[in-house]
């Protein structure tokens, strides 16, 4: 059975074949399967050596010291460790955290947990492009603030926060700055040596590495302290216990290495494909880009096709795998909180589709997608009463709807 | 998520898509839902002298289950009297299309739509008498 065209790279990526090949060498009896914590024999030494090499590969992409790379099970764990770990450690200094309304659930739910424990959290509003202004961060910091946690790139619309400017503010105020970099690593240049970022989360599976693997960058100078959330054998300098998953770690290392090596090629390829995709839609009536096309990562294109509902659109895209900001795709019946926060009406949020492009997307696939999407949108508009009303010049906001 | 075959069939080949003249005294129009909620249904019925629904048309903005619910509804109401049509229950639609719990509101909307169309028709008849 042929599968639909994969256009959901922001959700996850396939592992690069170079990654999966490397991983397979670290599992079975013929491979390097030892426990890196075994200090008494070669099995352990080999595993440790492979892990340290991978740690270096991670550090090289984001320009930090390998000793600042704390291995975790993914960006969700990294976010939890950074936020709860810092909040708990610096509890005596204060119990106030600053974040934004459009963070990933791993950040928002960690903050919610802290609120239940008696902390206060300020949720900043993004502008209409999904960007948090450094001035808003400055204004939100109080004497009892210990941490600011913001995403580098938004997962739904690709908006990029100015973490360099925000880092200047947090450093000056003596507040720690955590950045969720799950969507930015390998897509935009990250130089942790110059950025005043204290903690940063990364995920392997968003950049052609394996699922279940991530990193929390924990700065050494100035030193950042945090309280472990996972207790055990004292691995990762006590910050995250648990036997190191050698095959996952070398896979991630390889993925970071490739991301650095192929950075320019990936960027050029994906930017060209996104332009081709948007060029294929931009002449359509009542079709808008959500977020700022010119100031976002090239892999994400979030579009609202007004007067058609997202889930019905996705049903029509039999040959395309995408995601929608429509309520109907989740159990909650609420449309995307990110799109709502940047000022979209519920209706436009319901009509949104996120296309996310990656290393393995082909030009011919983009062309096929354009044709299928145009066909589906036209077909659904023909059966849409809202499209009729729009064509008749009726302002939908002036209609009294029977909300249900 | 996988869709039920009947939902897919109605979605791919929606029956009785279209519009009727809202001003016609023999036409009843029901428009329910709201864009903000993600679904709007417009159901129109053409009623003959004997109170029998001779034709029905719909247009729907919403998910596949909402489109299928309204498409099915147009098939069911044709040939019924307006009283019979107003008796159609959302559970009948939900059962026929095997809607999962999260989609039951689509069938509720369809029930609201036929009730609204019948009531619009009746008020027009009342006005003209």
Q: Give the distance, in angstroms, between the N- and C-terminal Cα atoms of chain B.
A: 51 Å
Q: From the alpha carbons, calculate the radius of gyration of chain A and give it in angstroms.
A: 22 Å
Low-confidence stretches of chain B: none
Regions with little confidence, pLDDT below 50 for 5+ residues of chain A = none
- Following the backbone from N to C, one meets helices and strands of chain A in this order, namely EHHEHEHEHEHEEEHHEEHEEHHEHH
Intertermini distance of chain A: 40 Å
Radius of gyration of chain B: 14 Å
The dominant shape of chain B is globular
Say how many strands of chain B there are: 3
* SSE order of chain B: HEEEHHHH
- Structural class category of chain B: alpha+beta
Q: Main interface pair?
A: A-B, 28 and 32 residues
Question: Helical percent range of chain B?
Answer: 40-55%
Short account of what is shown:
The complex is a heterodimer of chains A (404) and B (129). Chain A is an alpha/beta fold.
Describe the fold and architecture:
- The complex is a heterodimer of chains A (404) and B (129).
- With 404 residues, chain A is α/β, with parallel strands linked by helices.
- Chain A has 13 helices and 13 strands.
- In chain A, the strands form 3 sheets. A 7-stranded mixed sheet of chain A has the order 2-8-7-6-5-3-4, sandwiched between helices. In chain A, strands 9-10-13-12 form a 4-stranded antiparallel sheet. A two-stranded parallel sheet of chain A has the order 1-11.
- In chain A, helix 6 links the parallel strand 5 and strand 6.
- In chain A, helix 5 runs parallel beside helix 6.
- The longest helix of chain A has 21 residues.
- Chain A starts with a strand and ends in a 13-residue tail after the last helix.
- Chain B has 129 residues and is an alpha+beta fold.
- The interface between A and B is medium-sized, with 28 and 32 residues.
């Amino acid at each position: 059975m042929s599968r639909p065209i994969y256009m959901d790279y922001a959700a996850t990526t396939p592992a690069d074949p170079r990654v999966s090949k490397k991983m397979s060498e670290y599992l079975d009896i013929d491979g390097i399967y030892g426990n890196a914590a075994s200090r008494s024999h070669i099995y352990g030494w080999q595993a440790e050596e492979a892990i340290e090499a991978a740690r270096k590969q991670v550090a090289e992409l984001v320009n930090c010291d390998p000793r600042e790379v704390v291995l975790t099970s993914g960006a969700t764990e990294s976010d939890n460790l950074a936020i709860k770990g810092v909040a708990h450690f610096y509890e005596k200094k204060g119990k106030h955290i600053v974040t934004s309304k459009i963070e990933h659930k791993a950040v928002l739910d960690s903050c919610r947990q802290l609120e239940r424990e008696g902390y206060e959290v300020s949720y900043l509003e993004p502008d209409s492009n999904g960007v948090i202004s450094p001035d808003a961060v400055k204004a939100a910091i109080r004497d009892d603030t210990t941490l600011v946690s913001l995403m580098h790139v938004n997962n739904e619309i690709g908006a990029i926060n100015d973490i360099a400017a925000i880092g200047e503010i947090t450093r000056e105020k003596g507040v720690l700055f955590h950045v969720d970099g799950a969507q930015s690593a390998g897509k935009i240049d990250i130089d942790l040596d110059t950025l005043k970022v204290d903690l940063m989360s990364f995920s392997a599976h968003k950049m052609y590495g394996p699922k279940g693997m991530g990193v929390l960058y924990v700065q050494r100078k100035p030193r950042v302290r945090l309280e472990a959330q996972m207790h055990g054998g004292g691995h990762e300098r006590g910050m995250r216990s648990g036997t190191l998953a050698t095959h996952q770690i070398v896979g991630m290392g390889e993925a970071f290495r490739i991301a650095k090596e192929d950075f320019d090629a990936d960027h050029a390829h994906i930017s060209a494909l996104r332009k081709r995709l948007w060029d294929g839609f931009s002449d359509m009536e009542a079709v808008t880009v959500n977020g700022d096309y010119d100031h976002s990562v090239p892999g994400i294109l979030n579009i609202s096709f007004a007067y058609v509902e997202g889930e019905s659109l996705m049903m029509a895209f039999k040959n395309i795998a995408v995601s929608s900001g429509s309520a109907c795709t989740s159990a909650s019946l609420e449309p995307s909180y990110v799109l709502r926060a940047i000022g979209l009406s519920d209706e436009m949020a319901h009509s949104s589709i996120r296309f996310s492009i990656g290393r393995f997307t082909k030009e011919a696939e983009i062309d096929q997608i354009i044709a299928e999407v145009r066909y589906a949108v036209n077909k659904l508009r023909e059966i849409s009463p809202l499209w009729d009303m729009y064509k008749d010049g009726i302002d939908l906001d002036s209609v009294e709807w029977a909300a249900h | 998520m996988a869709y039920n075959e009947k939902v897919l069939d109605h979605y791919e080949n929606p029956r009785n898509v279209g519009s009727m003249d809202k001003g016609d005294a023999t036409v009843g129009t029901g428009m329910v839902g709201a864009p903000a909620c993600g679904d709007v249904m417009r159901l129109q019925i053409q009623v003959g002298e004997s109170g029998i629904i001779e034709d029905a048309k719909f247009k729907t903005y919403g998910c596949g289950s909402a489109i299928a619910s309204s498409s099915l509804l147009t098939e069911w109401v044709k040939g019924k009297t307006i009283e019979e049509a107003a008796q159609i229950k959302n559970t009948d639609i939900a059962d026929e299309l095997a809607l999962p719990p999260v989609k039951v509101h689509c069938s509720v909307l369809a029930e609201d739509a036929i009730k609204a169309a019948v009531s619009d028709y009746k008020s027009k008849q009342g006005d003209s008498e």
